[in-house]
Amino acid sequence: MAMGADGPRKRATIKDVAQAAGVSPGTVSNALSGKRRVDSATQARITAAIERLGYVPNLAARGMRTGRAGTIAIFSSMPTAVAAGAARLGFLMEIAASAAIAALESNTALLLVPPIEDPVRALSTIAFDGAILVEPETEDPYLSLLAARGVPTMVIGPATEDQPLAVRIDYRRMAETLFDHLHDVGARDILLVVGQSGRASNIAFREVFSQRSTAHGLPGQEIVLPEAEAERGAQAALRAHVAEFGAPDAVLVPIDAMATGVMAALRELGLRVPGDVCVATRYDGIRARSESPALTSLDLHLDQVAELAARGLVGALDTGAGAMVVDAPEPDLLVRGSTVLS
Amino acid sequence: MAMGADGPRKRATIKDVAQAAGVSPGTVSNALSGKRRVDSATQARITAAIERLGYVPNLAARGMRTGRAGTIAIFSSMPTAVAAGAARLGFLMEIAASAAIAALESNTALLLVPPIEDPVRALSTIAFDGAILVEPETEDPYLSLLAARGVPTMVIGPATEDQPLAVRIDYRRMAETLFDHLHDVGARDILLVVGQSGRASNIAFREVFSQRSTAHGLPGQEIVLPEAEAERGAQAALRAHVAEFGAPDAVLVPIDAMATGVMAALRELGLRVPGDVCVATRYDGIRARSESPALTSLDLHLDQVAELAARGLVGALDTGAGAMVVDAPEPDLLVRGSTVLS
DNA sequence: CATGTGTTGTAAAACGTTTTAATGCACTAT
DNA sequence: ATAGTGCATTAAAACGTTTTACAACACATG
């Protein structure tokens, strides 16, 4: 000791505080956490010492002892979550922003985990107590990994029986709202353009579309595409469809990247929106808004959804409660220029 | 021990692995980290044991020993960062998304820390090795807190002498590019609408605007507003300005929320964009794109900026290098319908 | 007086890793 | 033979908390 001069002062520890306040480390710990009463006089001495020494708890040490990291992670396996440019700001980021706020109010920080090639490595590199998983697939790799590791996981997505923590999204309701709007504005030859993967939202949209079409006695044609080349694929597919069958009255295209492709194809073909063809999509994101005309879509109330998810997860972690399933708020229709002349 | 049945199996520790492989914990640690050579035979036994026991390192324990949390945090004190709804997806989130990807490639996770009332609490609740600070103010509370705590902090923002880690943003260049574009499309009576706070970007825009206006012999009027009520304030101020001075040829309004207000006021006054008045803003975000016509703005290459910042910070943490200052890529003009008829 | 009860405080163990200094061991060079 | 040199490994000491079991004391109760 007595290391002389002005080297980078080592950070004060709880021991230093204890010594300065003339108590034991355990007492300081109790004073800090409030887990046990400490005499108000000692309490005062301790807070004074903390102040004077500029003590900041070592969170790693605390975490090792308590087994809590004080963080939750947000994941998504959606390939679109990592789209380029400003479109990167989609669904996932909108939820993340709100979840971060809600989490921080519970003294928990949010880890942003982008989709990467090697989920396993991510999970063993990053310390977190629980996870929020956005729109898991049917056999989602993250979900099974997290389950195997026993990490409490809050799913934002489809309702499943065996998922104890969830904010349930009603994709059928979305499909119904959009379909009915198109029908209301007079569309009869409605075309569905939808993703191929087994995601719940694709399935729900196809089911509802088919049911509603049958019920109204409409043709109900659909184009099913792989999600990967969403924009380009949708553009080409729509072009081909119009060439073969002529133009529909309306296109219902839940995935916004595909909606961009659809709009491009319609422009290319000289078809007017909404004069010749109406278009509606699901997520009111930057893509829907940057189109001209802007696309009719849904307000999914993602801020509320995120808050429910974050609070629910943190609550479950704190109380040890195993299950908490709530429904997302009902989506509201946002009528824009792509279905109604402004 | 011998606790009978099937309780929730305790997670395997490095000791268990060591025992199973017939070596000491230290050797397992070395095998894991690669910090020292271990014989390939023992290496194999160890990896086998890890596999068999499903061992996952306890990151808190590791962190305590190494003093590294394996995370970096991203902050911003910008009030606009927490705007409501989809507008929440601004600048900050766009940077965060890209930074998260870059960080994860270096085995570092990104903590999303929204602006809150009590920064001090956030800093002692959350464990992180370094920070990315977006657009700090002149006397930024976060910056001084982080500095006081000795946390390496990468600033994305204005160039300052004493900041060792930075991705420098050239706000003057942005102002010049936008002003010159407005001048090029024929605007002569250009109005600047800008924020009141001491943020570098406000200062740069005012300086450049004044210099350029003088150089060209233009009136160069400006409206300076508090950032808080950006949208409403800009709308009212522009209305008043037009009432007093008549309509300008063009409005240069760097803050996108204010640009929204300006557009609203122009609509209200029955002025056509770009026929009567051109409008340009700085950040090509959701607001700029959702306007009709969409607003001419700048591509700031935020993905590259974020990558530079994240990599630079992680590099500095790893190597202990104290300084790393780089320039952000030059912004590119995005000409849209608000300055040129499409 | 003996016993119980509640309140503050303490000492020491534990959490699971990494790192340091030391140990054996095989081999080479003197 | 002796010393020197690497190499692979180990034992044990940290890292800074929280928690457990216990002690000391004051006070009330029988």
List keywords for this structure.
3 domains; 434 Repressor (Amino-terminal Domain); DNA-binding; Rossmann fold; six-stranded mixed sheet; alpha/beta; homodimer; six-stranded parallel sheet; 342 residues
Q: Tally the beta strands of chain A.
A: 12
Helix content of chain A: 40-55%
* Number of H- or I-type helical stretches of chain A: 13
Oligomerization category of the chains in this entry: homodimer
The CATH homologous superfamily of the largest domain in chain A is termed Response regulator
| CATH A-level architecture of the largest domain in chain A | 3-Layer(aba) Sandwich
Domain module tally of chain A = 3
Rg on CA atoms of chain A, Å: 26 Å
The helix/strand order of chain A is HHHHEHEHEHEEHEHEHEHEHEHEE
Shape of chain A: elongated
Cα end-to-end separation of chain A:
78 Å
Largest β-sheet summary of chain A: 6 strands, parallel
Query: What do we call the CATH topology of the largest domain in chain A?
Result: Rossmann fold
Mean pLDDT of chain A: 90
Describe this structure in words.
2 copies of one chain form a homodimer. A 6-stranded parallel β-sheet of chain A has the order 2-1-3-4-5-11, with helices on both faces. The first copy, chain A, has a 6-stranded mixed β-sheet with strand order 7-6-8-9-10-12, with helices on both faces. Chain A has 3 domains: 44 residues, Orthogonal Bundle (434 Repressor (Amino-terminal Domain)); 128 residues, Rossmann fold; 129 residues, Rossmann fold. Chain A contains 13 helices and 12 strands. In chain A, strand 1, helix 5 and strand 2 form a beta-alpha-beta unit. Chain A has 342 residues and is of the alpha/beta class. Strand 2 of chain A pairs antiparallel with strand 2 of chain B, so a sheet runs across the interface. Chains A, B: Pfam families: LacI, Peripla_BP_3.
